[in-house]
Design a protein that fits this description.
Distance between the termini: 14 Å
Structural class: alpha+beta
CATH architecture of the largest domain: 4-Layer Sandwich
CATH superfamily of the largest domain: Aldehyde ferredoxin oxidoreductase, N-terminal domain
CATH topology of the largest domain: Aldehyde Ferredoxin Oxidoreductase,  A, domain 1
CATH class of the largest domain: Alpha Beta
Strand order of the largest sheet: 2-1-6-3-4-5
Number of domains: 3
Radius of gyration: 22 Å
Bound molecules: iron/sulfur cluster
Shape: globular
Helix content: 40-55%
Largest sheet: 6 strands, mixed
Number of helices: 25
C-alpha cells in the first residue's frame, strides 16, 4: 500500500517522450506500481502490458520503448549500475526486456527520472539528450550511418561526462537482432531493441543527469552493503573465477561436463580445449579487467591483440561467433566480437543465425556456399547482415525466418524466434525447461539451472533427471525477474540472496519488504510478461525446443546420449505456475498476484 512518506530510492518521476511531435512530459509514477513492480524489467512489463494494443507491429510507430532504472540504481549497493530496456521484439513478436551493464544508468537516473517512455517515429534521425529538467531532440543526421564506436566517440566528445546508449548500422537497417550499445561496448543484446530504436529513427540516447536518489537509512544500507561485499569477495565464483578469469571461466567447467556444442549444436565440443581455455586467453591476450558501475567483481575483459586494444571477449561470444562456427582462435573471436558491437548486433543471435545458414548450406538447402571455421567469411557475412546486403538480407531476419524460408525450420536453434545461448539443453535438463518456458525466447538469464545442475550452487542436483526441475525453474525465474527490476547483476546471486535484496531495498526505500515479497514481485512480473505474450498469441505452443534437442541425442563426450525430456517437466511447471495446459495464467493466479 502506498504511504505518505516521501520516496527514497525512486524519484517517482518518469518522462514520456513523443519523438514524432518532439514533445516530452513528466509524470508521477504511482507508488503502488513501484511497490508491485519495483522498476527495470518489472516496470517495462507493467507499462507495455497496460499501454500497448494487441497486434502492433514492432516497427509500427505505436510500439513503445521503456527505458528503466530500478530503486537501487546509483545507490551504494554493489552492481547497482545496470539498466533495463523493454519493447515489443521484432525477433519474437513478444515482450522483450534487455538488461545492460556499463555506466549509463547513473546518468539516466541522475536526470531525476526512474523511467523514460519513448513513442512515435522521428521525422529525421534524432538523438535524445536527457538532463534533470528536460529532454532535447538533437539532430543525428551526421551520425546516421556511423558505427557504434564512431557514434559513441562523437557524442562523448560533444557532451563530456555523460552516459551514451546508441545503435549502429544494424539498428538503422532494422536487423531483427540489432542491439543497443552502452559505453561503446556493453550491449542490450537480445531481442532486437536496436532495430526498434532504428525504426523510430533514434540513433542514441545521451543522459547527463547528476543527482543521486535519496537513501532512507544510509547507515543501515552501508552495513548491508559491507556484508554483501564480504560475501562477494569470499565466494569462489564472484571473488575468484569471474574476477580472475572473467566469464570465460564458465568455458572450462562447461567443456568438462560436455555442456557445449559446435556447428549449430550438431556436434559436441570435444576438441579445442587448449586453444579455448580461459587460461590460454589470459596468458596470450589479456590486457586488463573491466567493471560496470559500482561492481566489485569486474568480469569484463579488455584484450591486447597484435598491439590493438579491443573489448571482450565474453563467454557467450566465444560460443556463438567462435567455436559454434568452428572458430577457435581468440584473435578471430575478439575481432568478430568487436565487429558485432561496432555494427550493433547481438553476438548470440548473429552467431547462431550464421551457424544455421552454414548448416543449411552444407545440407544443400540454400545456394550459398558456406563452410565452418572461416573467420573471413564470417566477418563478411556479419557486415552484409548489418547492411541487409546480398545474403545479409535474409540473415538479418534471424535463424527462424531464414530456415523457414527454405522450409526447414528444424535447422533454426531457437525458442520463440530467439537463438539459443551456449548451454546445450540436452546436457542440462533444467536449463532445457528454462529455455522453453522463457517468455523472451531462448535465454540463459531468465533462469540459470546450470547453477544447480553443473556448478552445484547452492547444491548439486542430478542434471540428467527431470524430477524437481520445474520447481527450481519457477523459483529462479521469479527471483531473476525481481533482480532485473531492482536492478542488480545476477552474477552476485552466487554470493548473495533474496534476503540481502529485501533488507537492502528496505533500507534504501524505507518501505517494508520481506524475501517473500521479493519472490512474489518476481512472480507477478513473470506472469505479466506471459499475459502480454498470450495476448499476442504466443502461448504454451511456443514453450518448446528445437527438434534436435528433443530427438537427436548428443553424439559424444561426457553428455553422450542425452536429449531434453521437456515434456516430463512441462506439465508440472504449468501446475506450479498456476497456468492452464496451454501455458496461460489462470484467473485465480491473476487475482492472487493483483495484476
Ligand atoms: S559482474 Fe560483470 S556484468 Fe555484472 S556488474 Fe560486474 S562487471 Fe558488470
Amino acid at each position: 500500500m502506498a504511504s505518505q512518506m516521501p520516496l527514497y530510492g525512486w524519484f517517482g518521476r518518469a518522462v514520456e517522450i513523443d519523438v514524432e511531435n518532439r514533445k516530452f512530459e513528466y509524470y508521477e509514477v504511482d507508488e503502488d506500481v513501484l511497490l508491485k513492480y519495483l522498476g527495470g524489467r518489472g516496470y517495462g512489463a507493467y507499462y507495455l502490458y497496460h499501454n500497448m494494443r494487441r497486434g502492433i507491429d514492432p516497427f509500427d510507430p505505436e510500439n513503445i520503448i521503456v527505458l528503466a532504472s530500478g530503486p537501487l540504481t546509483n545507490t551504494p549497493v554493489p552492481t547497482s549500475g545496470r539498466f533495463s530496456a523493454s519493447t515489443k521484439s521484432p525477433l519474437t513478436g513478444g515482450l522483450i526486456d534487455s538488461n545492460c551493464g556499463g555506466h549509463f544508468a547513473p546518468f539516466f537516473k541522475g536526470s531525476r527520472i526512474d523511467f523514460a517512455i519513448i513513442k512515435g517515429v522521428a521525422e529525421t534521425p534524432t538523438y535524445l539528450l536527457i538532463d534533470e529538467a528536460k529532454v532535447e531532440f538533437r539532430d543525428a543526421s551526421q551520425l546516421w550511418g556511423k558505427d557504434v564506436h564512431e557514434t559513441y566517440a562523437a557524442l562523448k566528445n560533444k557532451h563530456g561526462r555523460c552516459g551514451v546508449s546508441c545503435i549502429g548500422p544494424a539498428g538503422e537497417n532494422l536487423v531483427r537482432f540489432a542491439s543497443v550499445i552502452i559505453d561503446g561496448h556493453r550491449a542490450h543484446g537480445r531481442g532486437g531493441l536496436g532495430a526498434v530504436f532504428g525504426s523510430k529513427k533514434i540513433k542514441a540516447v545521451v543522459a547527463i543527469g547528476n543527482t543521486r536518489p535519496a537513501v532512507k537509512d544510509q547507515h543501515k544500507t552501508l552495513i548491508i552493503v559491507k556484508d554483501m561485499l564480504k560475501l562477494i569477495d569470499a565466494n569462489p565464483i564472484t571473488g575468484k573465477a569471474l574476477s580472475l578469469l572473467g566469464t570465460l571461466s564458465t568455458f572450462n567447467i562447461m567443456y568438462r561436463y560436455g555442456v557445449l556444442s559446435t556447428r549449430n549444436f550438431k556436434d559436441p565440443l570435444v576438441d579445442g580445449f587448449e586453444e579455448l581455455s580461459a587460461e590460454k586467453y589470459h596468458e596470450l591476450y589479456f590486457h586488463r579487467k573491466f567493471a560496470c558501475h559500482n561492481c566489485p567483481v569486474g568480469c569484463g575483459r579488455v584484450s591486447k591483440i597484435d598491439g590493438r586494444i579491443m573489448m571482450g571477449p565474453e563467454f557467450e561470444s566465444q560460443f556463438a561467433i567462435g567455436f559454434n562456427l568452428g572458430i577457435y582462435d581468440y584473435r578471430d573471436i575478439v575481432e568478430i566480437h568487436n565487429l558485432c558491437n561496432q555494427l550493433g548486433l547481438d553476438t548470440i543471435s548473429m552467431g547462431v543465425t550464421l551457424s544455421c545458414a552454414i548448416e543449411l548450406s552444407q545440407e544443400g538447402l540454400i545456394k550459398e556456399s558456406l563452410r565452418w571455421g572461416d573467420p573471413e567469411l564470417v566477418k563478411r557475412l556479419i557486415y552484409e547482415t548489418s547492411q541487409r546486403a546480398g545474403f545479409g538480407e535474409l540473415l538479418a531476419e534471424g535463424s527462424l525466418r531464414l530456415a523457414k524460408s527454405v522450409g526447414h525450420e528444424e535447422y533454426a536453434m531457437q525458442v520463440k524466434g530467439m537463438e539459443l545461448p551456449a548451454y546445450d539443453p540436452r546436457a542440462s535438463q533444467g536449463m532445457g525447461l528454462a529455455y522453453a518456458t522463457s517468455n523472451r525466447g531462448a535465454c540463459h538469464l531468465r533462469a540459470y539451472l546450470i547453477g544447480v545442475e553443473i556448478l552445484g550452487v547452492p547444491k548439486r542436483v542430478d542434471r540428467t533427471l527431470s524430477a524437481f526441475k520445474a520447481g527450481l525453474c519457477v523459483i529462479q525465474q521469479n527471483l531473476y525477474a525481481a533482480v532485473d527490476s531492482l536492478i542488480l547483476c545476477k552474477f552476485i546471486g552466487y554470493a548473495t540472496h533474496e534476503e540481502h535484496y529485501s533488507r537492502v531495498l528496505e533500507a534504501v526505500t524505507g518501505r517494508s519488504f520481506t524475501s517473500e515479497d521479493i519472490m512474489e514481485i518476481g512472480e507477478r512480473i513473470y506472469n505479466v510478461e506471459r499475459l502480454f505474450n498470450v495476448r499476442e498469441d504466443i502461448d504454451g505452443r511456443y514453450d518448446t525446443l528445437p527438434k534436435r534437442m528433443l530427438e537427436e541425442p548428443i553424439s559424444g563426450g561426457p553428455s553422450q546420449g542425452y536429449t531434453t525430456k521437456l515434456y516430463d517437466m512441462l506439465h508440472e511447471y504449468y501446475e506450479l505456475r498456476g497456468w492452464d495446459s496451454n501455458g496461460v495464467p489462470r484467473r485465480g493466479k491473476i487475482e492472487e498476484l493483483k495484476i
